[in-house]
Structures are given as structure tokens and as C-alpha cells.
Input
Amino acid sequence: MEYRKLGRTGLDVSEIGLGGAHNMQILPEKTVVSIVQEALDNGINYIDLYSANPHVRDKIGLALKGKREKAIIAAHLGVSEKHGQYCRTRDEGECSKFFMDFLSRLRTDWVDVLMLHFIDLENDYESVFNGGMLHLAQKYQSEGKARFIGMSSHNLEVSLKAVKSGQIDVLMYPINITNSAMPDREKLLYACITEGVGLVAMKPFAGGTLLQESAEVFTDTLSSGWRSFHRKQAISATPIQCISYVLSQAGVSSVVPGIKSAAELRETLRFLNASSEEKSFDSLVESFGRYLEGGCVYCGHCLPCPSSIDIARVNRLVETSKHVFTRDLYSEYNELSAKGSDCIECEACMKRCPFNVDVISKMKEAKRLFEGSRYKAWIRSLYWRFHKYQLFWPILRASRKYRMSFLNTGDTRK
Output
């Protein structure tokens, strides 16, 4: 593992960090402990944990027991949880409550970086940096509960303003192959270098879509820091190529891919021993030229849902079903406590979603596809995947004609 300076903090952070801890909510405690400890054993020392879920925090805390000194921990100020769902907050009392809970559950007295969480709007930036949450972070810093202050954002202009303000030591920002042509991105990268701000890159796989074959790859304000796009992808990238691209960008100190299993961790760590050919990403960068708006990268920032729908999970099941429909998909959906049919069309999620995803339509699609008997769901999935092909309709008409002919023959025999 190679290490890089995290800007003016002077911290030596592993070039590959551990992110996506919110994905570990459904994993058994033993699995989470194994993932975190295997990451530490392989030299990963930067761990980003924005989840406010108490179970996730407890699992990470157990994994770090006796190993706290080996880890550089980034916590997020401005996250909370309501009814078991992620929620962003700017209430100082709530921020304080969930940060102290973080320290308690992770069994530590301090964090290395305290991120001002998810600041994308100009008015939100002004509110946070002119009092409120920034002052709270500075208070914790003066008390020794936070060594350095950072900010996570998906907006280039807001990020650039924060970097130049002198108020943050670390910036967490999305960098991946899909935003390689984003105007003015270089200004932000070089501003981080000039100002001595450590740059932590999130979304290296663009929400996982870069790793999918024959998929529509989405880039949005969360994964690009620019605008929402999607494109038809001719070939998929590998984790090695994605990480190689990110680490080649100016000013990047560490990349934090979201890890959901030990297998994904090991696949990510293959980068350490990869050949130059495996790391090459030139052809991929060149392939990103045309984009259209709007798809989900399953981040959960649309929550909380008043109907308690796990929107990201439902969307992922819907998208997966377009490529393969299995009994497990059907079962997973129908085991959800809240389904697409529970959507009340309040549009609150769509207002929060930086992707411009039509969530209501997605919930209706989920209802049509998954709710009802498994046989009918399977038939619907076949229609969904094949109706766009030219031969589909002639074959369908022929099959209907054959069926009617067969039924008529039966009637004649009677």
C-alpha cells in the first residue's frame, strides 16, 4: 500500500480508503468485522463513515477495538437517522447528539476528520459556514474531539468556495472516469493543491454503474459534481481501471470506494499488484462523449421516505431485473417492509434527489414488475427486456394466433 499526505493535515493516508459503510447495515456483525480488519491488515488506514445507523457504528466500533491507532477515521457532522432511515440535518442539537453517539459507539474519544456533511447548495453553504454547524465543528476541534475539519460536497462551485475559504482542511468530492471532461474540474483539483486541502475522492465507480456490462452509466450531481447524465456503455470498466484513473488525478490523496463484501474488498486491493496494462484507462476516458439525463446511483440521499420505502434498494432491484430476473430478486422485493405500491407520490424524494430521478415512475415500475404472483412477474420481466426488439412483436402476434387456433381446435372437438 502506498501512502499520500492528506493536504496540510500532515496525515499519511492510504491511497485506497474504506467507504460505503452504510452498505454494511444489512451485513452480519462477523462479516463487517472481517472486512474492516482485513482492510487494516492490508494497509488501508483511512475509513470514511457517514452512516448514522447505530448498528453500523457498533459493528465498525467492534472491528476497531484494539486497533484505533491504526485507523484515520472521518466522521460526518450533519447526519442523523429517523425511523431507521438516513436523514441530513442542520439542527445543532441533532448534529451534536449523533456525533457524540458516533464517538461512543466507535469507542473512541476523537475523530481525525470531521466532515461538514453534504453541502451542495449556496444558501446551505452560507448557513453552515457563517455560524451553526461550522462553529460546532470548531468547538469539537478545540475540545480535542476532532483533529481536522473537512467538507463533503458534489457541487464544484460550492467546493471551490470552501477550499478557498481557509476553513476546511479536507474536501470529499466525487471523481471518476465519467466526469473526466467536466468543465473547470481542474480548477478545483489545483485549488486543493494550492490551498493545502487534502482531497478524498468518492464515487470512483459512479455508484457501481461503471462496473456493469451493457448498462446505462449515470453521472449526476452526486457522482460528477457537475450535472446529471447517462450514456449507453459499450464496455465495462474494472475496479482497477477506475481506481487507477482517480489516483492519477492531481491533488487526490485517497480514494474511498464503497465496499459491501470481503470479495469486493479483495477485488479492490488487486490494484496494489496490478500490471500497467490492467491499470490503463485511456480507452475508457475516450468513450465518454454523449450523455443524457437522469438515473439512480443508489446513494440514499432521497430519504427519508414517509412510507419508509428503501428507494435505492427498490430502484436497484428494478434495474437489475432488466438484465436478469430470478426468484431471489422477486423474493428480496417481496420481503421488503415497504414496497413500490406504498408510494404516496408526495415528491419529497424527488426534490431531494440530485440525480433528477423520476422516483414515482420507478415505484410504479416496481409495483408492475414485482407485485403479484411470481409467474406473472416473470412474464412481465420477459416483456420488459424483449419488447424493444423488432422481432418481439411478430413473435408475440404469432404466439397469440397459435394459441387462439389451438383453443378453437379444442372447441371444435367438443
Q: What stands out?
A: Residues 289-294 have pLDDT under 50 and may be disordered. Residues 19 and 167 are 24 Å apart (CA to CA).
